[in-house]
Design a protein that fits this description.
Number of helices: 11
Distance between the termini: 40 Å
Number of strands: 0
Number of domains: 1
Largest sheet: none
Oligomer: single chain
Amino acid sequence: MKRLSQWLAQYILPYGAPGLFLVSLIDSGLIPMPQGVDLLLFAQVVRDPHRVLLYATLATVGSLLGCVFLYYVSRKAGEVALDRHASPRRIGRVRKQFEKYEAFTLVLPAMIPLPLPMKLFVVAAGVFKVRFGLFILAILFARVVRYFGIAFLAHHYGPYTWTYLRQNIWLIGVVVAFLLGFFYWLESRLE
């Protein structure tokens, strides 16, 4: 992670908003950079707090477009794309999740900045033909929560954000559980 943050700081941070958009697009659609968008978004907001909404919006839109690209490629490539990303056992578990919860399956891996296999879920959504509207809603909901949340914290707490997060992990867990419940309720209303 240290090498990634150094690379981002040296080569992408100077490009500001366009660099953030490009990294979020590439991260979601092509080459995974675990927590790369989070780190870059955080650094951009701390560096230029007046553009917090622009940075959060560009990270969200770039990620959404990257996921849409991967979704469509996966719809066309079919099972071959999924077989390249996971074992048959894991594919079976993911298939059951999509059959049971459909787009709700995407929310947690897209929202939580943990090393979850986000691409596996996006590829599976395309292969299992999750309804496009629900796919967009799930990714958009999760990315808005994640990126606007990071931007809000970086704006308010600056370099002390990580300390704040560590000290309030239980509160974050409650908020995430509430948001997941809200999305599940919203998705059931749209069906």
